[in-house]
Description:
161 residues; alpha/beta; Purple Acid Phosphatase, chain A, domain 2; 3 helices; 11 strands; 17% helix
Amino acid sequence: MKVAVFSDVHDNLARWREAAKIIAEENIKIGFCCGDIGDLNTVEEIAKSFETLYLALGNLDFKIKNSTGLFPKNVVFAPDFGEVVLDERKIAYVHNNRTVKQLAESGRYDIVFYGHTHTPWEEKTGNTLMINPGEVAGQFGRASFALFDLKTMKPELKILK
């Protein structure tokens, strides 16, 4: 099973729609948003692309922090970080890069998805793979997100135009 992993949308729906087109073409049903999504309208738009959207809030998501009761039903909300088991893989997802190493070093997870740095990155600590998909918004670099294959444990970085 492949999942979409993205972060730092910052309400840039034009870039999100580019990502959503690729996600639809790849028939991806599950998404992980690692924070700084934007406002409630952006959450609603992004949620349309998935059967399930796992969402951790970022440091700039103060506009939606108190809107959780208004999220679409397919959004699984985690204020700081979340965890889930999919295809026998234990996954943590978080925005803040300061907690990633700590989560990985705990040995509790196969994968930790994170955001905040706006830079795509892959690193392994022990048996835990840490994946940062970069930024959808394209504010500080090229806009990107990742598709992650839970079976092969391989990410595929997608660069947006």
